[in-house]
Amino acid sequence: MRIYSVMIHETAAKSAGSDPARRAQAARLVKEGFSWPAFFLGPLWLLWHRLWRPLVIVMVVLLATGTAPPLVQSLASLAVSLILGFEGNGLLRAGLERRGWREVAVIAAHDRDEAELRLAAMLTEAHGPADGRPTPPPAAPDAPAAAAQAGA
Question: Is the pLDDT of residue 77 over 90?
Answer without folding.
Answer: yes
